[in-house]
Design brief:
Layout lengths: L3 E8 L8 E8 L4 E5 L6 H8 L5 E8 L2 E2 L5 H7 L1 E4 L11 H9 L5 H14 L1 H5 L10 H13 L5 E5 L7 H18 L2 E5 L3 H7 L2 E6 L2 E7 H5 L2 H8 L2
Parallel strand pairs: 3-8, 3-9, 6-7, 7-8
Antiparallel strand pairs: 1-2, 1-4, 4-5, 9-10
Helix pairs in contact: 3-4, 3-6
The structure holds adenosine-5'-triphosphate.
The site of adenosine-5'-triphosphate (ATP) has 10 residues, from helix 1.
Length: about 240
C-alpha cells in the first residue's frame, strides 16, 4: 500500500506569503492524480515540499499513515518517494545504460540490477536502441524517457512528476503518459502528475486536482473535470 496524504500543508519562501496555504490532498494507492493549475499556482512547490526540498511551515505529509514531514529527503526516498523534476535531468556524461544502473544502484545489485535495467528497455524501446549513447546526445524525448526510466528502475511506490510533457512531440507525450498509466495498473505505482498539458494528463489520470493560489479548488474524477468547460475556463485558461 502507498497512499499519500497531505494535511493542511502550508509552504512559503523566506518571509513571503504562503505559496501553499493549508492544502489538503490524498493520492490513493495505485492511483494517478493529475495536478493542474496555471503558471505559478504552486505545483512545483508542492512536489518539492513532498520530498523535503522546500521547508514546510505547517501541516503534514503521510505515507500510509506514517508521518514523513520531519524526515530528510534521503529517508523519504528510502520510504518509496521519487521525483522526476522539470527539465529532463539525466547525467549528460554517462550513457543511457549507466544512467539506468545509477537509478537502480541502491535497490539491486549484480544480475538483478541488469534485469531491472532490461525491464526499462522493454518499457521504452527507444532507450534500448540508444543504450550506449551519452546523455548529452539524446533527443528531448529520449532524455525525458531516460529521466522517467531512471526513476522507475529504483522501484518507487509513489512517483511525483513535474511537467514531463513540456516541449515534447505529441507522440512521445502519449508514450510517456501511457507508461505511467500502465505502471499504475500493473505494479500499483501511485502517481502525482503535475502538468500544463491538461488534456493529456486527464486522459491517463483517475482524478484531476486544480490548484489556484495555493489551494485545491477542484478535486474530481478526471473525466468529469475534462468535461467541465466552466471549470477549465476559470482555472485552466481554455
Ligand atoms: P509553473 O507551472 O510555472 O512551474 P507552478 O505551479 O509549478 O508553476 P511554482 O513554481 O511552485 O508554481 O511557484 C509558485 C509560486 O512560488 C510563484 O509565485 C513563484 O514565484 C514562487 N516561487 C517558486 N520558487 C521560489 C523560490 N525558490 N523562491 C521564492 N519564490 C518562489
Amino acid at each position: 500500500m502507498s497512499t499519500l496524504t497531505i494535511e493542511k500543508l502550508t509552504v512559503g519562501y523566506g518571509d513571503g506569503a504562503p505559496v501553499l496555504d493549508g492544502l489538503e490532498l490524498e493520492v490513493p494507492d495505485g492511483g494517478v492524480v493529475a495536478l493542474l493549475g496555471a503558471n505559478g499556482a504552486g505545483k512545483t512547490t508542492l512536489l518539492r515540499s513532498l520530498l523535503g526540498l522546500v521547508p514546510v511551515r505547517g501541516g503534514r505529509v503521510l505515507l500510509d499513515g506514517a508521518d514523513l514531514t520531519r524526515l530528510s529527503t534521503e529517508d523519504r526516498v528510502r520510504r518509496g518517494l521519487a521525483l522526476v523534476p522539470e527539465g529532463r535531468s539525466v547525467v549528460a556524461e554517462l550513457t543511457v545504460a549507466e544512467n539506468l544502473r545509477l537509478g537502480a544502484l541502491w535497490r539491486h545489485r549484480g544480475p538483478a540490477r541488469e534485469a531491472a535495467v532490461g525491464q526499462m528497455y522493454e518499457l521504452f524501446e527507444p532507450l534500448a536502441r540508444r543504450r550506449d549513447a551519452a546523455g548529452h546526445t539524446l533527443s528531448g524525448g529520449e532524455r525525458q524517457m531516460l529521466a522517467l526510466a531512471r526513476a522507475l528502475v529504483g522501484e518507487p511506490d509513489v512517483l511525483l512528476l513535474d511537467e514531463p510533457s513540456l516541449g515534447l512531440a505529441p507522440l512521445v507525450v502519449a508514450q510517456l503518459l501511457g507508461v505511467l498509466r500502465d505502471q499504475a495498473e500493473a505494479t500499483g505505482l501511485t502517481v502525482l502528475l503535475a502538468e500544463q498539458n491538461v488534456t493529456g494528463a486527464l486522459s491517463v489520470a483517475d482524478r484531476g486536482v486544480v490548484l489556484s493560489l495555493g489551494e485545491v479548488v477542484a478535486d474530481r474524477p478526471a473525466a468529469e473535470l475534462a468535461a467541465d468547460p466552466a471549470l477549465r475556463h476559470a482555472y485552466l485558461g481554455f
